[in-house]
Design goal:
Elements (H helix, E strand, L loop, with lengths): L7 E5 L2 H4 L22 H5 L22 H15 L3 E5 L2 H4 L10 H16 L3 E7 L5 H7 L6 H16 L6 E5 L9 H5 L9 H26 L4 E8 L2 E3 L4 H23 L4 H9 L8 H9 L4 E6 L3 E3 L8 E4 L2 E4 L5 E2 L5 E2 L1 H15 L3 E5 L17 H19 L5 E7 L19 E3 L11 E3 L1 H11 L9
Parallel strand pairs: 1-2, 1-14, 2-3, 3-4, 4-5, 5-7, 6-8, 7-13, 13-14
Antiparallel strand pairs: 9-10, 11-12, 15-16
Helix pairs in contact: 3-5, 7-9, 9-12, 13-14
GO molecular function: beta-glucosidase activity
Keywords: Glycosidase, Hydrolase
Protein name: 6-phospho-beta-glucosidase
Length: 477
Amino acid sequence: MAFREDFLWGGATAANQCEGAYDVDGRGLANVDLAPVGEDRAAVVTGQRKMFDFEDGYFYPAKEAIDMYHHYKEDIALFAEMGFKTYRFSLAWSRIFPKGDEQEPNEKGLEFYDNLIDELLKYDIEPLVTITHFDIPMHLVKEYGGWRNRKVVEFYENLCRVIFNRYKGKVKYWITFNEINMLLHAPFMGAGICFEEGENREQVLYQAAHHELLASAAATKIAHEVDSENMVGCMMASGVHYPLTPKPEDVWGAYTSDRDNLFFIDVQSRGYYPNYALKFFERNGLDIKITEEDKELLRENTVDYITFSYYNTRVGVGDDSNEETVESNLFQTPDNPYLEKTEWGWPVDPLGFRTTINSIYDRYQKPLFVVENGLGAVDKPDDDGYVADDYRINYLADHIKQMKDAVELDGVEMLGYTTWGCIDLVSAGTGEMKKRYGFIYVDRDNYGNGSLERSKKKSFDWYKQVIASNGEDLSNN
């Protein structure tokens, strides 16, 4: 059997894409609440368009999302029916600290996660908790400038102390930041950063990156102090770059594009800034404030395992390329003519999954955990809410087969696998509901219409079979 007996099969969501209840039980406003569906979303999440409060004429899908806040028992029961061994979810920072800089947490927010975690444990589902999945309280954005400000590290540490103590003995697996490298591509969503006129953007972004890396190391330190059983992981949006051609400039372009993504994980896994990053700062005149104490914290508090999302590979080119690009998980990449595309134009590359897994494992030699993988597609339910989503089954089967080969044939140490959006939720990239990933259909459209009723898709029983066979039976009957 390829996968270990205790392999953690499951699914993944994010608080801002599924919980809703944005102003319930004392929750404060967060940056992720303010990303509207529609053409202005990209400008908001990238920090080009300042939107610090709700504005007329926009629909904000995260306000209600799929209302998991009031449906979590029903949803977890469905996860248990599929046989989930783990469920990856995130905490809404502003539910626990509404403003972010308070000394004392909001008890109602903690109680919600008490109940959610206890519900998972009732079904023997291991909680896998992302401490922050793109969200930061808007008070910290308005008053401190988001992660550009070093003081935010202290506020994050305070959050960590509270949750590690509160959930000691109940939660073992933690992830510090979701897709930490996305900070460079979606600064407002990834770090609560909006740029001011004339600002050196690279200086701001890499200083904010340093603060998040410090916060991650501090979280790892606190987690291990509170409970030696705690396992803390980092997370990146992954996908190797293929050179567009064998032209040396394209090969070098692909190599350096990979390093741009791996830089964060290099620091979190190895405990120090790689020379190529320090040379990049020097070459570009960036004065990143890094103290000796910072270096010691990073060095002594590396992560226990490495998690990542995988949706597709990308293409690397030389500096002089004028290739047209396609969209892929908020990254722009030149088109790869050898790959099919999803309805949203994302390349589909199962073998690239195996390549990516191996490239990460070869580099770090630490246990891996795939925490996002899936197909966003338009689902057309019948009158009973049933979706015959063979396309999703085929996509996932093809990817799981490649992950299996990485483990069985290549010897990669893999802890688990959680599909993205195991229940339909709001898309982070576009804000749409029609871009669905789940095994469970939720009756909700892009603008909040629908009953929120849950129903099983064909993939529901297929994934149940995959888990029950520990990944041996991928057939679509």
